[in-house]
Hints:
The chain is an alpha+beta fold. The chain contains eleven helices and ten strands. Strand 7 and strand 8 form a beta hairpin. The chain is elongated and about 85 Å long. It starts with 16 loop residues before the first helix and ends in a 29-residue tail after the last helix.
Amino acid sequence: xxxxxxxxxxxxxxxxxxxxxxxxxxxxxxxxxxxxxxxxxxxxxxxxxxxxxxxxxxxxxxxxxxxxxxxxxxxxxxxxxxxxxxxxxxxxxxxxxxxxxxxxxxxxxxxxxxxxxxxxxxxxxxxxxxxxxxxxxxxxxxxxxxxxxxxxxxxxxxxxxxxxxxxxxxxxxxxxxxxxxxxxxxxxxxxxxxxxxxxxxxxxxxxxxxxxxxxxxxxxxxxxxxxxxxxxxxxxxxxxxxxxxxxxxxxxxxxxxxxxxxxxxxxxxxxxxxxxxxxxxxxxxxxxxxxxxxxxxxxxxxxxxxxxxxxxxxxxxxxxxxxxxxxxxxxxxxxxxxxxxxxxxxxxxxxxxxxxxxxxxxxxxxxxxxxxxxxxxxxxx
Length: 381
């Protein structure tokens, strides 16, 4: 005698929307927890290196006829672990990207559908790319409301609303970092100065004391013997340096697929923001069977006769209504600034646990580096 055991996420078992959302989100917490641990470890490692004041420098007067002075790098210990930090960043991106795929798999299983090999969360830069994803069956057997939610988060839909490059979407950044790491290409990084503050005096060979702002150039390679600061005091020769204060702040920059560079810690924030928007929107859409499809961004693309994937006339929002975003629109009027989940995310209990938790997850705070009540960061500046 056989008995039917319902799937733990089937909608015929968990009818309540909040219960469905909790059950689905709890299945992802193990990997999200791991990504959070990796994120904290990366930021802590960089902070420890900075706090150790690893660079020893000395200031020197240029020999005539050169005018000015320079700061030479004498030693760097411990050396910065740029390659390792790039590997850690790629690993974090991989965990977040994989969570989108596994959540999609659980949704199909919960609906009683067949999980195909092609099933994958798409990240499309154009309507044509989206149609190609659909043709490959990446969202086969996914409920329509979830398809709409995924479409609303696509880089090209955001780009149509904002008039910018879809590759600058934070979801696109997450996908690019994951792909680069997956293909065993180094993400790498390089140092650059965020700011330099200088106040000082020079003494000329005839004894004149001058307060001046020299023309400065910088070498951020941190190689021993390099001139991290080269100051040109033309037309004045320098015999000695008077009272001088020089403060500098360095950042680690990582280049993206467009060649733009972003501070590593900020890039980490962006991939968490891209993940949180895609993950929370997808889960919320699945949990709410009665969700209004027209509340999703890009809803006009699904209208009859709309020329799919292009701006069309929406009966409610007018022509080219790409900005009726289900997530962003509900939070746009809240004026609070985003906050850092790396410092505010309360996961102490989770991180202390030996086994991944199985209970409900508060996705209101598992949103990367974006406050739950402020608009998600869906663009890069």
